[in-house]
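Can't paste images in this forum, so I'm doing it all in text. The chain is below; anyone willing to post the predicted structure tokens underneath?
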Amino acid sequence: MAGVAVVVTNDRGQVLLGWNASRAVWELPAGKVEPGEAFEATAVRELAEEAGLQARPESVLLLGTLCDSTHGFTRVTEIARLTDFTGEPTVREPELITRWEWHTPFAVRNLPQPLFTASAQALNVVWPGLLPDVPPAHHTPRPAGGVPLKFGEPTAAVRLREQLVHDLTEAGWTDTPELRRAFTTVPRHAFLPEQSLPRAYANEAVATVYDQGSGRSMSSVSQPEMQAVMLHRANLRPGANVLEIGGGGYNACLIAELVGPHGSVVCMEIDPYVHARTERFLAETGYAGRVRAVLGDGTRGAPGELIPADGFDAIIVTVASNDVARYWTNQLAQGGHLVMPLRIGGFTRAVGLRNEDPALMSTEISPCGFVPMQGAGRWDETAAPLGDTGYGIRWEDTPPSALDGLDRALAVGGTELWTGVTVRGGETLEDLQLWLATSLPGFCRMEGDPDRPGLVRLPKRSGAEAIVLGRSLACLMTERREHDEAEGTSTWEFGVQGFGPDGKAAADTLAAAVHTWDRDLRGRATPRLTVMPAGTPDSALPAGDVVEKNDCRIVVSWPGRDEAPAPAVGRNTASGRSDEQ
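Text version of the structure:
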């Protein structure tokens, strides 16, 4: 059986579905292909015969062929996409369809009655991921056609988008006319068809792909305020050539609006499913000719034929990376900007870097939380177990040390001391985290169940900052000292636990680092990062602590210690919704 399913949308972005009373299902306009008939002609004919809508074959965009089996037959369904038509839906074949209705894509997920299987499969081609648990069918996509689609959206989407831009502007995120125009223009909900309009326009990250084993988000549409921060740091100008690492499409379209018709955007994505979504949504919104979507491992940069002669003016990485890949540095123009979520010591920071060959110099730093890099840039977060205590150590950027005997040290207890350094609930700790991670030898993260009975007092947040010195260990802890009921805030004091024969010395070392932060750095100093190629000799590095990565050496320099005191480098007060906070 060969047929065509027609996915037609109106000027409000709603899809047309008919109620088939005899089969008690909703279905798309569809029908069998007559002998010798072109698929486009079938789509136009069936739409007129079933729903009374008039269209031209040249307005039909064919998206590919679905092949599955039903009732002992091989069913071949061509998916036709159509937005250019005239007329209003009318029941023409009441023995088949008793009524026609327009539905938003999100509402299709919540129909009270079922969808015809072939129709559901066709809708998932147009909006990948819209309908979960649809029986599989083999999809053979067609090469991208040249038929333009008219993008329609409800007035509520325009209103919500304008409200989002207003809120971002009031908070100081969209602080330029160009950013405000980009966020006002690009329809975010088109890249999140499975979400309601209010959810699509909330100032929140929205996950679109999850790891089946851990349930962890592996792809998402980023939080708008963080996107605004990173786009601002990329210093985008009309005519700029930009490489984005990480697909999805929405952020790439924001970039396209900022660089204008004379600029270029290359979007690299490693996940075939996310890449397919990106391509489809770019086509749906009219950006396919302005954004080049490429399937591949972004840690290796863009394919050679897509690299501008002088390099990219900006590279924006939208997945957390544990390294500054040498390919990005090599493909970045002199004076160009690299903006990325960079992991240092296990803490992720949105870092703006400027290419001042041979080094990348940081311009701004703020906390953030992003989905992890895949492919060659993937890292292992498995903690090394401390015997069978239930606790483990994550080494991050520190060379691992032997953990022999630490399980016994935890069992017998150790030293506990309090620093007298307090913080208020909600106070950001990004400076302290980076200071400890980069300045302390033997730095690591200690993990375990914070509610586990025992001598170790882990904080409720994600692990504890710790150090391993020889056969001893010290870890940071907090304890509430005051609570203001009226304000709903608490004051917490930092403490340190030490275990092992040199546990007291390890605890003193960690406590001293906390005191140094409180006395010299707290609220006054943001580190400056200098990124140099791997293999750069020590003599060529500036003063500071060196973090060794595979492709680079990162020098973390603190004003007042390694540099002359100066205003904080690009301090940004964004909460960043960090998963470490």
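The chain has a mean pLDDT of 90. The first helix runs from residue 39 to 51.
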